[in-house]
Design brief:
- There is one protein chain.
- The protein is of the alpha+beta class.
- It has a single domain (3-89), classed as RNA Cap, Translation Initiation Factor Eif4e.
- Helices cover 26% and strands 35% of the residues.
- The chain has a four-stranded antiparallel sheet with strand order 1-3-4-2, covered by helices on one side.
- A hairpin with a 4-residue loop joins strand 3 and strand 4.
Length: 91
């Protein structure tokens, strides 16, 4: 299985679940299963663009509560046609 992933961590957060700051947080996961492979590129571009906008809003502090976001990732599981977006926040 091929997996491609982009990860964004807040400052002073190690990129591992064992980091104490990650243990008590919550995660919102959006999973998209692409059934029509003819439209995969267009669908992929929309999801990717929205994830980048979200990261820019968080980094810029434009979203209420953005100071609680500690991790976000964008994951593509090409063998199963699934795209995942995860956002983790402090408890």
């Amino acid at each position: 299985m091929r997996i491609n992933s982009l990860n964004f961590f807040a400052e002073n957060i190690r990129p591992e679940w064992e980091d104490e700051k990650n243990k008590k947080g919550h995660t919102l996961t959006l999973q998209y299963e692409i059934k029509n492979l003819a439209e995969i590129q267009e669908f992929f571009e929309v999801i990717q663009r929205n994830w980048i906008y979200l990261i820019l809003l968080v980094v810029g502090g434009s979203i209420v509560g953005s100071e609680f976001v500690i991790y976000s990732n964008y994951l593509i599981k090409s063998s199963s046609n699934i795209i995942l977006n995860n956002i983790s926040i402090l408890d």
